[in-house]
């Protein structure tokens, strides 16, 4: 394989859930191997809303050493009883550095219940309705609400979305690419996807992510 000869400095940032892995599951070995191959051509960074422990569980224990940049929690290190949803478990609100993660079904649900809620929510729009209500209720508080993953959404001070990590990216990069699956308005990839500092790419699965990256960064360099 011929290496790229361009002196242009490029970095690609990747969301985790739905982009590099099936939500809340580990990325498969071909994906992990591809990311290391990709590092021969460009810099690679990970930016996720979860904490470092959860990201490491999905990308491997050595994740902190295997990528050029790794940003956990976007680079930041009573409502439930009235919801008409089939199942409610526990841990409806999880405190993270710089944000609250809010789950209508509760983070203690099983993987099967996560999958079922995600399908249910596509039609019922539970999270979208909750985000809309909170945007109206807390409109003067300087907060942003973003849907992410399968079962939850985040609440954080405006400006503390995934664009927060960009301040730590070397300003000498010519291009910063971002790949994410929740790039729609209200999704937790939307702000960084739309940022004037990035070239945004919407993906629908880990396979789609790898295909787009191969076409953009590897096939064009051979």
From TrEMBL:
It comes from Symbiochloris irregularis. Its cofactor is Mg(2+). Catalyzes the interconversion of mannose-6-phosphate to mannose-1-phosphate, the precursor for the synthesis of GDP-mannose. GDP-mannose is an essential sugar nucleotide for the synthesis of D-mannose-containing cell wall polysaccharides (galactomannans and glucomannans), glycolipids, glycoproteins and the antioxidant L-ascorbate. Mg(2+) binds at residues 15, 17, 181, 193, 198. It catalyses: alpha-D-mannose 1-phosphate = D-mannose 6-phosphate. This is Phosphomannomutase. It holds the Pfam family PMM. Pathway: Nucleotide-sugar biosynthesis; GDP-alpha-D-mannose biosynthesis; alpha-D-mannose 1-phosphate from D-fructose 6-phosphate: step 2/2. NCBIfam families: HAD-SF-IIB. Its EC number is 5.4.2.8. The active site is at residues 15, 17. Alpha-D-mannose 1-phosphate binds at residues 24, 96, 107, 114, 152, 154. Keywords: Cytoplasm, Isomerase, Magnesium, Metal-binding.
């Amino acid at each position: 394989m011929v290496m790229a000869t361009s002196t242009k400095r490029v970095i690609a940032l990747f969301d985790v859930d739905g982009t590099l892995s099936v939500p809340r599951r580990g990325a498969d070995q071909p994906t992990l191997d591809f990311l290391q191959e990709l590092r021969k051509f460009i810099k690679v960074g990970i930016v996720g809303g979860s904490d470092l422990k959860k990201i490491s569980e999905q990308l491997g224990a050595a994740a902190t050493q295997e990528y050029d940049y790794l940003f956990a929690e976007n680079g930041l290190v009573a409502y439930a009883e009235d919801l008409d949803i089939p199942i409610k478990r526990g841990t409806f609100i999880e405190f993270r550095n710089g944000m609250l993660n809010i789950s209508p079904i509760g983070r203690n649900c099983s993987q099967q219940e996560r999958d079922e809620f995600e399908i249910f929510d596509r039609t019922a729009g539970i999270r979208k309705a909750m985000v809309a209500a909170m945007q109206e209720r807390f409109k003067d508080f300087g907060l942003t609400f973003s849907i992410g993953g399968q079962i939850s959404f985040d609440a954080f001070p405006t400006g503390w979305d995934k664009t927060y990590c960009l301040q730590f990216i070397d300003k000498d990069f010519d291009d910063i690419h971002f790949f994410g699956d929740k790039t729609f308005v209200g999704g937790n990839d939307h702000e960084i996807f739309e940022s004037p500092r990035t070239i945004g790419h919407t993906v629908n699965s880990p396979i789609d992510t790898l295909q787009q990256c191969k076409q953009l960064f590897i096939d064009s360099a051979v």
